[in-house]
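Progress narrative, work stream C.
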Amino acid sequence: MSDFSSKFGGIFQKKSERPRIRPVRTWIDHLFDFAMLDFVLFGIGYAIWAYPSLPATIPTKFNGAGQVTSTGPAWTIFMLPAIGLVLCGGLRLIQRWPWISNTIISITKENAERQYQLINRLLGFCGAFVALLFLVIEISMVRGAGGNPSNLGMTMGLVAVFPWPLVLAWYFWQSFRAA
């Protein structure tokens, strides 16, 4: 096996052969967890608070200009917090067993702690950011149900897409440095 494939063959590495350690969590990991939990819980609370005042049908989809393109029953206001709870819970669960994650870098005893920290940091950011996006969409749905147009439009699309290449570039750069 060449040096390149032994170092950068994480995709082909048997996950059962990876070291099973839980990395030390830092303040930033706890911050991402706290933010994710806050956004999800606020979304649930907001849906409960807003539901009694919603009309029978509410906006469920918006176009780039912020105009309503689809509506649904009022109970769909609970869908985003429910999906967010399941998604963020799943991401948090994967953080508990980082050795099951797909990586480009082969995980060894020497680099496992750092690689697992990076995986957990990436998943923590993803959870917090997705929970925030779901919350903003939920607020837009309630505003749209009240007759207020969503002022997000293209801005929401850019905010939803822009951070991912930067975050993934950071993760890959850090991961390759720690290989």
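Work stream C, second folded protein:
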Amino acid sequence: MGTFRVVRTTRAAQVGFLAIDEVELESPDGEPMRRTVVRHPGAVVIVPVEADQATVVLVRQYRVAIGSHLLEVPAGKRDVEGEEPATTAARELEEELGMRAGRMVQLAEFFNTPGFCDEHSHLFVALDLERVDQPSPTSPEERDMTTERVALADVETLISTGTLVDAKSIIGLLLARQFLAGALPGVDAAP
């Protein structure tokens, strides 16, 4: 594998929490290249597992990019400078579901769409859940959001029927099942 060298990066736009950079590179064989890269602050993904360890709590929310509602695990942007991923995950769990995890375990990290975006996600399973006061929703999407309880045993059917099409949710639910079955190690994370 050769080395790609960044020659210049120019900020083309800053829109909300996203930035768009034009990157000029040189390939290993010296060929000049240009790529457009979306800069994202990163995200957390949380799989909230109920006490029976057979059921998870998902959200159904409107996603303007696809013009439809999606069934998803709770997730959120890492939009607080310097905040640890586990802390962000705990905050998002309280904001979206009004739940606090007695135990938060990190299962994986992944890049969502590395072909054009640097978004890096931290995936957690939330265990020993308890209800807490939920902050009032701030956006129309949050006010419209509903929660659904789903059996982990039904995940493959939800995927194969197209009911569950969100990549972070598919990754999270499949890894959570493996973790709960003792087939995948995790790292305890204190929020």
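The mean pLDDT is 95. No further action is required on this item.
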